[in-house]
TrEMBL record:
E.C. code: 2.4.1.-
Molecular function in Gene Ontology: UDP-glucosyltransferase activity
Keyword list, A-Z: Glycosyltransferase, Transferase
Record bears the keyword Repressor: no
Protein name: Glycosyltransferase
Homology family: Belongs to the UDP-glycosyltransferase family.
Keyword Nucleotide-binding: no
Length: 467
């Protein structure tokens, strides 16, 4: 939606096509769509007619193939919608990349909006070409490093869980197939800026990245940070932060959708480590994973007195604040009192922390977050890793030690300096002559080169299948 908001300024009409919002039974997402639509009167929103027998989706190992199958079934609905308006071009989110088939059928240019990093896109462009290979499948390689062109060695265990499945499984085939469709588009807009990911961007532009294949143009147009329609009420945690010294608070938050959570044992280890560190903290806690209950309910109310170490809340009263379920992450990161961020390494969270100038402690949980961790700790130099996440338990001593490292040590000060430099780079990217501004202008120039641009009443539909 941040991309869509920029297009009317350049004379384009914008239409947003959504699949049925009920497939995830997510009332929060539906409310967000309604709020955003109300805040953007210049943009038209269209919910595509439903398909027969739509699957109800749950967050498990089968989510990706089921979701992609659902989107595939919506392609005919998308075809009808595009036929009625004949747009200049279409932009789709990464999971909707197979919609390029519809665009090609109608002679419409199709672009991806890749909402993860350029480094991840460089890896994803190569991975489908690496099988078959002697080891059989990625899952059998474990932590063995896998060499990718112009990228740091990637332990196979850090790939998407769907990629670690049997190569003959439907989950594996569907996942790899979706990556191939991304490369069939006319170009890819990436939510990043060049100075943050110089190595990943260079890989994508190098003809050796995927042998025998010229990748479509890549436009680094980010970072897109923040919401279109902000909440009006100020969260109580921000009031608490107002009373804390500058750069004194460690913020712990592991994602807004709650697709994963920590065990009871892990929550207690975090609590002990935070208490022993002696530092101020703001911690967003979700109910723990209960292996006996599937699917996991991310909205369950956590019982803090039961979950955390005995007397923890009382002993840390004043220097610590525990918030249930959710906090306004970007507002917290931008607050003068926040000095470090313990994150699950989702790309939105990474960009929010970078643009706020806050160093990070990596604790990846799912999806491409493990891959992000490698780039954050290595090439970008904006984070340190919490050891133990891969074994399923980060010990209290590790929590204490890494918090002290970032908040007290010379290494922590150097980390902060690098993040601050990238913060300035993010701002510069959108200034006149900045890399992201130039990339966006090039994207518009490529769209404008279409032969039928003069046709009146046409626009750029934004195909957004999910948040």
């Amino acid at each position: 939606m941040q991309l869509a908001a920029q297009l009317p300024e350049h004379g384009y009409a914008v239409s947003v096509a959504l699949i049925d919002l009920g497939v995830m039974e997510d009332t929060i997402f539906s409310a967000v769509v309604a709020r955003v639509a109300a805040s953007m009167p210049s943009v038209s929103f269209h919910t595509l007619p439903g398909v027969e027998d739509p699957l109800k989706l749950t967050l498990d190992i089968h989510f990706i193939p089921r979701y992609l199958d659902l989107l595939r079934r919506y392609n005919e609905r998308l075809h009808e919608f595009l036929s009625s308006m004949r747009p200049h071009a279409m932009v789709v989110d990464s999971l909707s990349s197979e919609a390029v088939v519809v665009a090609k059928r109608l002679g419409i240019r199709c672009y991806n909006l890749f909402t993860s990093s350029a480094s991840i896109l460089a890896a994803f462009s190569q991975l489908p070409t690496l099988l078959p290979f002697p080891h059989g499948n990625f899952g059998e390689l474990g932590d063995s490093p896998h060499e990718l062109f112009s990228l740091p060695p990637m332990p196979a265990s850090h790939l998407l869980a769907e990629m670690l499945e049997d190569p003959e499984s439907e989950t594996y085939k569907t996942t790899m197939g979706s990556l191939c469709w991304i490369m069939e588009a006319n170009g890819t807009l990436v939510n990043t800026f060049e100075s943050l990911e110089a190595r990943g961007v260079a890989a994508l532009r190098d003809p050796r990245c995927v042998l025998g294949r010229v990748l479509p143009p890549v436009y680094c147009v980010g970072p897109f940070v923040g919401a279109i329609a902000e909440a009006k009420e100020r969260h109580e945690c921000l009031v608490w932060l107002d009373g804390q010294p500058d750069r004194s608070v460690v913020f712990l938050c592991f994602g807004s959708i709650g697709a994963e959570s920590h065990s009871k044992e892990q929550l207690r280890e975090i609590a002990i480590g935070l208490e022993k560190s002696g530092h101020r903290f703001l911690w967003v806690v979700r109910a723990p994973v209960n292996d006996m209950e599937k699917p996991f309910n991310p909205s369950a109310d956590p019982d803090l007195d039961t979950l955390l170490a005995d007397g923890f809340m009382e002993r840390t009263s004043g220097r610590g604040l525990v918030v249930k379920l959710w906090a306004p992450q970007l507002d917290v990161l931008r607050h003068r009192a926040t000095g470090a961020f313990v994150t699950h390494c989702g790309w939105n969270s990474v960009l929010e922390s970078v643009t706020a100038g806050v160093p990070m402690l990596c604790w990846p949980l799912y999806a491409e977050q493990k891959m992000n961790k490698i780039f954050m700790v290595g090439d970008m130099g904006i984070a340190v890793e919490m050891i133990g996440w891969q074994q399923g338990l980060v010990k209290a001593d590790e929590v204490e030690g890494k918090v002290r490292l970032v908040m007290e040590s010379e290494e922590g000060r150097e980390l902060s300096a690098r993040v601050e430099a990238h913060k300035k780079g993010a701002a510069a990217a959108h200034n006149n002559g900045g890399s992201s501004r130039l990339a966006f202008a090039q994207f518009l120039a490529d769209v404008a080169s279409l032969q039928d641009r003069a046709r009146t009443g046409e626009g750029i539909p934004m195909g957004l299948s999910d948040a």
